[in-house]
Write a structure and sequence with these properties.
This is Glycerate kinase. This protein has two domains: 139 residues, Glycerate kinase, domain 1 (Rossmann fold); 247 residues, Glycerate kinase, domain 2, CATH 3.90.1510.10. It is 34% helix and 18% strand. It contains 13 helices and 13 strands.
Length: 416
């Protein structure tokens, strides 16, 4: 039997936001390895293919296999409070086009794992300090450093996710040299945002309102921070449009999006004004990533796509699913199946091949009907829905053991 193991990371979500790379939970590669170990012990003759998945969040560069990497380097940057952190910059090997030829030799696609720079802290107190005092300037610094490595025809893809810092992206713009310099720089480069989180910057359900859940600051203080961040970000959007009134998005398509491009976004990338013209606002899809940097960068000319879809294309998910008999994916906590999340993307791709897809998760609160609609046949959770102790509370070694045992059980259930 041929089985594809395509799990995402299994991270806890204490406030509905995955604490990716936090030391709690397991990275995608470890999840895949544990499931494969258990499966092979029970069914040694099955052919297993491992394809760890990511969504643009912290550590996404680690799932890109060596055969897909033309070069890899580490760039040092500053976190929200000035702490030195390292992010990976990967230049991808050009993939053959549908005609069988390599992509244009002079153009390259790069991936910057910038989400690691502004990763949400596990400690709500530390997150509060970042919200009150932090800056996104380090993000602008590493983007600028990465762009300096690229050529005029290259595309730089920047992984971004939710963070505690909430300065409306002003630090990012300032680190790129200010509005005019940043606008000029991005007009000469193709920059794409690979968004792990689709939350908007402002509004009742925006990143600012959510600060009260991921930090120790009060809802009133969170609202105050949000008003200030949104006002500043919209000043940048307005000023950027004044510099180039016709600019509402990227001038060039992102070459990494091919087979999955026609799927589109789960929500509109722009809101529309009364004339039907696309415009950016604080309620636009995905603008809350990176403390509002996603909104500012898009105003300056960057494009944006759901991270799981971009990573699926980079990793070759559609090709990997073909000729399999079963696909297994995984996620930490499943309260719904987002069409642009790892489970949703893997489920859709598997369903397109009329194959069964099962999902392993730490905690599952999704009905069978919701799973079926997402292309998932069944789900296996490590924790009961109403359990008091969290599924990852006993630490990574225990979690690895549980996943290995579950891999063995799944093989006895599904292998033929």
């Amino acid at each position: 039997m041929k089985v594809l193991l395509a799990p995402g990371g299994m991270w806890p979500e204490p406030a509905g936001v995955p604490l990716a790379g936090s030391g709690h939970g397991l990275a995608p590669s470890r999840v895949a390895a544990c499931l494969a170990s258990g499966w092979s012990q029970a069914r040694p003759h099955d052919a297993l293919s491992l394809l760890p998945m990511a969504d643009g969040g912290p550590g996404s560069a680690q799932v890109i296999g060596p055969h897909q990497v033309a070069s890899r380097e580490v760039i040092q940057g500053r976190g929200p409070l000035g702490q030195v952190r390292e992010v990976d910059l990967v230049r991808l090997v050009p993939r053959p086009s549908r005609s069988g030829n390599q992509d244009r030799g002079e153009a390259s696609t790069w991936f910057l794992d910038a989400a690691r720079l502004l990763a949400l802290p596990t400690d709500p107190g530390e997150a509060a300090q970042e919200a009150l005092e932090g800056s996104t300037s380090g993000l602008g610094g590493v983007i600028g450093a990465a762009l300096s490595r690229t050529g005029p025809l290259d595309t730089l893809l920047v992984g971004m996710s939710r963070s505690a810092v909430h300065d409306g992206g002003l630090g990012t713009m300032d680190a790129l040299g200010g509005l005019r310099a940043a606008k000029d720089l991005l007009s000469r480069r193709s920059l794409g945002l690979v968004l792990a989180d689709d939350i908007a910057l402002g509004g009742m359900n925006g990143a600012g309102a959510a600060l009260a859940g991921v930090t120790t600051i009060s809802p009133e203080r969170a609202q105050e921070l949000d008003r200030r961040a949104c006002a500043r970000a919209m000043e940048v959007v307005s000023a950027a449009q004044d510099l180039d009134p016709g600019a509402v998005g990227p001038r060039r398509p992102l070459p990494v999006i091919t087979a999955l491009n026609d799927v589109g976004l789960s929500a509109s990338a722009h809101t529309a004004d009364s004339a039907g013209t696309a415009r950016l606002s604080t309620s636009t899809w995905g603008t809350g990533a990176g403390g509002g940097s996603a909104l500012v960068l898009r105003a300056l000319g960057a494009g944006a796509r759901p991270g799981a879809r971009v990573m699926a294309e980079i990793l070759g998910l559609s090709d990997a699913v073909c000729a399999q008999d079963l696909v297994v994916t995984a996620w930490g906590e499943l309260y719904d199946v987002l069409s642009d999340g790892v489970v949703g993307v893997v489920g859709q791709q598997t369903a397109s091949q009329a194959l069964p897809c099962i999902v392993v998760c730490g905690r599952c609160a999704v009905s069978r009907a919701e799973l079926a609609a997402a292309g998932v046949t069944n789900a296996y959770g490590l924790q009961e829905v109403h359990a008091t102790e969290s599924w990852e509370a006993s630490g990574s070694p225990w979690l690895e053991s549980r996943l290995t045992d579950l891999g063995s059980r799944l093989s006895r259930t599904w292998s033929r």
